[in-house]
TrEMBL record:
This is Type I restriction modification DNA specificity domain-containing protein. The keyword DNA-binding applies. The lineage of its organism: Bacteria, Pseudomonadati, Bacteroidota, Bacteroidia, Bacteroidales. It comes from Bacteroides caccae CL03T12C61. CDD domains: RMtype1_S_EcoEI-TRD1-CR1_like (cd17260). InterPro entries: Restrct_endonuc_typeI_TRD, Restrct_endonuc_typeI_TRD_sf, Type-I_RE_S_subunit. One of its GO terms (molecular function) is DNA binding. SUPFAM superfamilies: DNA methylase specificity domain (SSF116734). Keywords: DNA-binding, Restriction system. GO terms for biological process: DNA restriction-modification system. It comes from the Bacteria. Residues 356-519 form the Type I restriction modification DNA specificity domain. Belongs to the type-I restriction system S methylase family.
Length: 522
């Protein structure tokens, strides 16, 4: 259970009468209700409030069922199905509208200093924190929600409602203020209800999770009447104060627990990431699975890939430049050399680590074919067109299609993505996103990719994908990134990256082992 869940449980226990023991000597909540009704009548006589035509009382009948009586009409109905949970003896069920003034008026002179409080000035969470800007009452008395010291407020719009933006106003200039129209205000009738108990009620899962909303997807508000008609479990005042005191004691402890839990969760995530990186590093160094002599050599695989490339060039499916390659070998002096045409150079300092004897070092261009995507104009965008993959469509090594763009422009066969292609973010405003990749599986429909993306086609796609997530790849990426102010991975640079190649059968065992270990790390 995390800190938020624990806080929710505490608040739920509080409003159900399970947080502190009941005291039979407490004055029952029914006495509070009498005081509230008396205060209401006084305010009605003074014409400060109007009589509520829907005012009701809720009581338990001799048959143990709950009934609600509308005072204006005398109508009585059974409300057993509305009662969400049992409450202790001495508590009472009431409608919120019976206990509070909702969005009451505030009257003051125009030149009076007052607090102005926009939504962003109210803190989210399980507390009561806010800041204000001082303005004259005449500037804010119209077009905003008015409130006064000791009023309780909560946000009625998503996601502020779910984030528990709620507050008890205290210390306002001249005791008054106004602010965002997205607030609902509750005012108690005198000192009949502990305001912190009300705040905890408004922050409880019972109030938050059961709300219904109306509006567009991005701007939903609680429906009219949700607050007013919500059933409120009212404890004796003395018990309210014990509940508030108990919550005040445990919340700081929960906050410490929550911070410790967040730190532990962060450490677990970081540990998982470190373990994954270690697995990938072991994989590309030939240490993850044992070598088997009968599986042949990487040299045989490289020759097969070269032969396949030559075939595709003859068929016109690849450019002749795809045959540009080099051979990396170890000389009699134990140094590494790279043969490019007739030239040979010492690259020993570039080799980052030793690999098994049946592996080979080569450049990425030797085992793959890569190129950047298409450029399109805003006028090409068409909701019935072909999906164009962008960097936002790569998430945790997989495709994420919740934010897509489609284009209607003509797309060549070369620019269409195929199963087992690897899509790479080659350019981005954020440096940390350059190099992230996804292995394409189970294409639901034809797709292409944008100009800030690159495609990598290779027969060793499983192993290549593991390499693209390794520290070896990202280390080389950092080296080339430090030479330019633009956050990009050019295809020339990518093709020059070093990659250690195992025999094909060993690659299959490596891919299986990585999948198995990553599954265990979830």
């Amino acid at each position: 259970m995390n800190g938020k869940q624990l806080k929710n449980s505490i608040l739920q226990w509080a409003i159900q009468g399970k947080l502190v023991p009941q005291d039979p000597n407490d004055e029952p909540a029914s006495v509070l209700l009498d005081k509230i009704r008396q205060e209401k009548e006084r305010l009605i006589k003074e014409k400060k409030i109007k009589r509520d035509k829907n005012a009701s009382i809720i009581y338990r009948g001799e048959d143990n069922s709950y009934y609600e009586k509308i005072l204006a009409t005398g109508e009585v109905k059974c409300i057993d199905e509305e009662i969400p949970f049992d409450v202790p003896q001495g508590w009472e069920w009431c409608r919120v509208s019976s206990l509070f003034q909702i969005n009451p008026k505030v009257v003051a002179e125009d030149n009076t200093s007052a607090a102005f409080i926009p939504m962003e000035a109210i803190s989210a969470g399980y507390g009561s924190e806010f800041r204000y800007y001082e303005k004259k009452w005449g500037e804010i008395k119209s077009g905003y929600t008015a409130f006064a010291d000791n009023d309780i407020a909560f946000a009625k719009i998503t996601p502020c409602f779910q984030n528990r933006k709620s507050v008890i106003f205290e210390g306002l200039p001249n005791g008054i203020g106004a602010g965002t129209t997205e607030l609902k205000i509750l005012r108690t009738y005198g000192e009949t209800i502990n305001r912190w108990f009300v705040l905890y009620f408004l922050e409880s899962p019972y109030f938050i999770d059961e709300a219904t909303f109306k509006g567009t997807a991005n701007q939903q508000r609680i429906i009219v009447g949700y607050l007013e008609n919500k059933l409120f479990p009212l404890p004796p005042l003395a018990e309210q104060e014990r509940i508030v005191g108990k919550i005040g004691l445990v919340m700081p402890i929960i906050d410490k627990y929550s911070k410790s839990q967040e730190l532990l969760d962060k450490m677990n995530v970081e540990l998982n990431e470190c373990l994954k990186k270690s697995v990938l590093q072991e994989a590309i160094q030939g240490k993850l699975v044992p070598q088997i002599a009968e599986e042949g050599t990487a040299q045989e695989l490289l020759e097969q890939i070269k032969a396949e490339k030559q075939k595709l060039v003859k068929e016109g499916k690849l450019k002749k430049s795809a045959l540009d390659s080099s051979v990396i070998f170890r000389g009699d002096d134990n140094k590494y050399y790279e043969q490019i045409g007739k030239k040979c150079r010492d690259i020993t300092e570039q080799i980052p680590f030793e690999i098994p004897s049946n592996w080979e070092w080569c450049r990425v261009r030797n085992v793959s074919n890569s190129y950047i995507g298409l450029t399109y104009k805003p006028t090409d965008i068409d909701e019935k067109g072909t999906i164009v993959l962008r960097s936002c469509n790569i998430r945790n090594g997989k495709l994420a299609l919740d934010d897509i763009v489609r284009v209607s422009s003509s797309i060549s066969e070369k620019m269409l993505i195929e199963e087992n292609d690897i899509i790479i973010c080659a350019r981005n405003g954020s440096k940390r996103l350059v190099g992230k990749s996804a292995l394409i599986r189970n294409l639901p429909e034809p797709m292409t990719f944008g100009a800030f993306m690159a495609i990598c086609k290779t027969p060793i796609y499983e192993y290549m994908f593991a390499y693209l997530q390794s520290d070896l790849f990202f280390g080389q990426l950092r080296d080339v990134s430090n030479t330019t102010t633009i956050n990009q991975l050019t295809q020339n640079k990518f093709n020059d990256f070093l990659i250690p190649i195992p025999p094909v059968r060993e690659q299959e065992r490596i891919a299986f082992k990585i999948s198995q270990l990553f599954q265990e790390l979830r």
